[in-house]
Write a structure and sequence with these properties.
Blueprint lengths: L6 H8 L12 H7 L6 E5 L5 H8 L3 E6 L2 H14 L1 H4 L2 E5 L12 E7 L9 H8 L1 E12 L19 H6 L5 E13 L7 E12 L2
Parallel strand pairs: 1-2, 1-4, 2-3, 4-5
Antiparallel strand pairs: 5-7, 6-7
The structure holds S-adenosylmethionine.
């Protein structure tokens, strides 16, 4: 297990100051989820909550989970600054996704973006998949192995994955709608002023 990516690492990461703040939602979330009717959502490894706030502002009822207390503090502040109607639609939960059991019968959407889990490959993805309600959507985004990502801890092999590897972790109860490599402008935290290459998996759980 790479000690780099434990709770202490992430608390230090977010404790580093305003430079870590990201205020644009993940581009793949906007692309893949923009056409879905709002329901319940789990933002797994929500970081500073930008995606959770984006979902809530579109009417989703969001459970946003992260290991890092510092990230969740910022996320709460961010949501409050957007407005009480948005903040009230988000439950912030400090928990380790590798052991956390979600309440209820499953979410209409489970998304996880760049969560460099310390769990063995596929383990977290299967846990997340189990949290999706029938007919619900799973969206997982990771750094593709061909992504340069210089100077970042994410360059560790454990943080890289292909969409095909992710799709292979799903059982027959899923329709894979997207499994491929996507590019995006690599600005902001972890960015390097060029183009990043991401692995994107979108799948729908069969009824
Ligand atoms: C690179 S950040 C991505 C944050 C956010 N999803 C985004 O796209 O901006 C990875 C996040 O996953 C969280 N994380 C990593 N492993 C986790 C685990 N086992 N349980 C909960 N959160 C975890 C970290 O604390 C961190 O906030």
């Amino acid at each position: 297990m790479p000690a780099d990516f434990d709770g202490e690492y992430w608390d230090r990461h977010y404790g580093g100051g305003a430079a870590h703040r990201v205020r644009q939602p993940t581009v793949h979330l906007v692309t893949e989820v923009g056409d879905l009717a709002p329901g319940t959502a789990l933002d797994a490894g929500c970081g500073e909550g930008t995606d959770a706030v984006w979902l809530a502002s579109r009417g989703w009822r969001v459970t946003a989970v992260d290991l890092a207390a510092t990230a969740l503090e910022r996320a709460r502040e961010h949501a409050a600054s957007v407005g009480a109607d948005v903040a009230d639609r988000i439950d912030w939960v400090r928990a380790d996704l590798t052991t956390w059991t979600p309440p209820g019968k499953g979410f209409d959407l489970v998304c996880a973006h760049y969560v460099h889990s310390t769990a063995p490959s596929g383990t977290l993805l299967r846990r997340l998949a189990a949290s999706v309600a029938p007919d619900g959507t799973l969206l997982v985004v990771g750094h593709h192995p061909s992504d340069p990502h210089p100077g970042q801890p994410a360059r560790a092999a454990e943080a890289h994955v292909t969409a095909e590897e992710m799709a292979a972790s799903l059982d027959a109860g899923w329709d894979v709608l997207v499994a491929g490599t996507r590019t995006r402008p690599a600005g902001g935290p972890g960015g390097h002023g060029s183009t990043a290459r991401d692995a994107v998996l979108r799948a729908r759980r069969r009824r």
